[in-house]
Amino acid sequence: MTSYRRPTFLLQSLHSCITQDYRPLEIDISDDSPNDECEQIVRSVTLPEGISLRYWRNSPSLKQTGNVNKLFSMARGSKLVLLHDDDALMPGAITALLAAFSWSPSVIASYGLQYIIRSDGEISMSESEKHDVYVHRTRDLTGLQQDPVVSALWLQFPNNGYLVDTALARATGYLGEELVGDACDADFGIRLALANRNSHFAFIERYTSLYRLSPSALRRAHNTCWKHFDQVKRLTGLTPPQAEARDLLLRRTAEQSVVDCAIHRQRRRAFEIFTSPFYPKSKLRPKPLYHLALMAFPRLVFLRDLFLEKPEQNAPASPQPALNQRISMQEASDRV
């Protein structure tokens, strides 16, 4: 588990691990916090029988990539679950994910559905369902994923909460921000699949983890898509279905990549993506005009962020907020 200055979230995440029914279980925590608040939380926890815990506080900070790679290198089990400290596992998740490995000797990773936790700590069922549909985690795709590359390019492989072969996770590792920006989770899944094309991912139709949406300020770093877009675009030697999945991902990230490039004053690259076949063709909408203006005047993004701040604080991201059903974390546990 990675950790950084979020002791309350860390405690919730740690509790979700301690209450798993799988034994023996070893919990590793790599903490980048500059103070000892998270360490005090960890030291105060009483572990049940069959669970051990190892804790490291990093000085200097390893940042996200180094933090994850440290956990991969230190893991002692044949399989591991990556978890970030603001997310959590559902009860019985590890047992259910491990059972999926019995479907075939070729399974190298398994994952399930994700609940989306909003900033107020509640779970939004409408956003959870919308997100899982968006990344192709649907009932008709339950079971062995015949092409892990397609699954990874769909972003079906989640950002964390998955169970993966430790040796393969270690061999793949996370790439640094200078290469993929903040898209290191998605990049990991894609490279894991590319390096193991004859293997399989296993998707189970069960909620196994909770994914907390980042505060709006963190999501405005504009460092998620622009570098990763180019990494994905450079992929070659793909089968037709893989190329189709690659192009779908490029179409989905083209607009935000234009914004990211503009903010980082990569005007030429922003315009190249804007005029590429991956950018939506309807250029008469207000958004393309805004993107063109942003290339010339990057500071316009702060006006947009200021405008979006109030809706993001209280309203769900769903286009139909009135229909947004919310449940508590305890109610989510009761549903398993």
Features of the shown structure:
336 residues; alpha/beta; Spore Coat Polysaccharide Biosynthesis Protein SpsA, Chain A; 2 domains; eight-stranded mixed sheet; three-stranded parallel sheet; 15 helices; 11 strands; 16% strand; disordered C terminus
Helix and strand layout, with pairings?
Layout lengths: L1 E2 L3 H12 L6 E7 L5 H8 L6 E7 L5 H12 L4 E3 L6 E2 L3 H7 L7 E11 L5 E2 H10 L8 E3 L2 H6 L9 E3 H7 L4 H4 L3 H12 L4 E13 L13 H8 L6 H24 L3 H8 L11 H11 L3 H15 L11 E2 L1 H7 L1
Parallel strand pairs: 1-2, 2-3, 6-10
Antiparallel strand pairs: 4-9, 5-10, 6-7, 6-9, 7-11, 8-10
Helix pairs in contact: 1-2, 10-11, 11-12, 11-13, 12-13
Helical content band: 40-55%
Strand content: 15-25%
What is the number of strand segments? Answer: 11
Contiguous uncertain segments of 5+ residues: 307-336
CATH architecture of the largest domain: Alpha-Beta Complex
CATH fold-level topology of the largest domain: Spore Coat Polysaccharide Biosynthesis Protein SpsA, Chain A
Q: By CATH's scheme, which homologous superfamily of the largest domain applies?
A: Spore Coat Polysaccharide Biosynthesis Protein SpsA, Chain A
Question: How many H/I helical runs?
Answer: 15
Mean pLDDT figure: 88
Number of domains: 2
Largest sheet: 8 strands, mixed
Give the SSE order as H and E letters: EHEHEHEEHEEHEHEHHHEHHHHHEH
Mind telling me the CATH class of the largest domain?
A: Alpha Beta
Form type: globular
**Class per helix and strand makeup:** alpha/beta
User: What separation lies between the terminal Cα atoms?
Assistant: 23 Å
Q: What is the multimeric organization of the chains shown?
A: single chain
Spatial extent as radius of gyration: 20 Å
